[in-house]
Amino acid sequence: MTDLPDPIEQAAYYQDVNLKRVIAWFIDSMAITFITFLISLLTLGIGFFFFAGLWLIVAFFYRFLGLTIYSSTMGMRMTGIEYRQKHDRPFDGLYALLHTIGTMIAYATSLQIVSIILMLITSRKQGLVDLILATVVVNRAARQSSDEM
Asked: How far apart are CA 24 and CA 98, in angstroms?
């Protein structure tokens, strides 16, 4: 495909990735909500009037910055997974931006349902945005142990 880890020969890369993605999503959602709440308090309550919009802005930057710097969000780091692009490289700013925009569009539409189904049936556990960008989520420990060899 694009030099991504093989799901048969390197199965450890994809083991429990879907479960870890769900846990990471929950952690990230709680962190985004907490940050949005703090911003709303710091604006002397004005932010509460725009909480949903503010939440979306915080979510966008939280995800984009995490993917740009670490190739994973805080929740993903806590669950031991990360994104990889072609040739098993971490995300750069462009991939982080494209993946964040694609994910926000998927969340705002019924495409997220398609994405979840794809994660369940594809051999590399890729969602719709992952398939479009040729990216994967892998277990960081499996990747690091193969780097040491």
From this structure: 20
Determine the structural domain holding residue 43 and report its residue range.
Answer: 11-143
pLDDT score at 135: 96
3-state secondary structure 119-132: HHHCCCCCCHHHHH
pLDDT in tens, 19-70: 999 999 999 999 999 999 999 999 999 999 999 999 999 999 999 999 999 9
> Which amino acid is residue 148, in one-letter code?
E
Exposed/middle/buried for residue 53 (C-beta within 10 Å: 0-12, 13-18, 19+): exposed
Specify the pLDDT at position 52.
Answer: 94
Q: Is residue 5 part of a domain?
A: no
DSSP state of 3: S
Contacts of 11 (CB under 8 A, 6+ apart): none
For residue 122, the tally of other CB atoms under 10 A from its CB is 15
149 part of a folded domain: no
Quote the pLDDT of residue 108.
93
What number of residues does the chain have? 149
Q: How many domains does the chain have?
A: 1
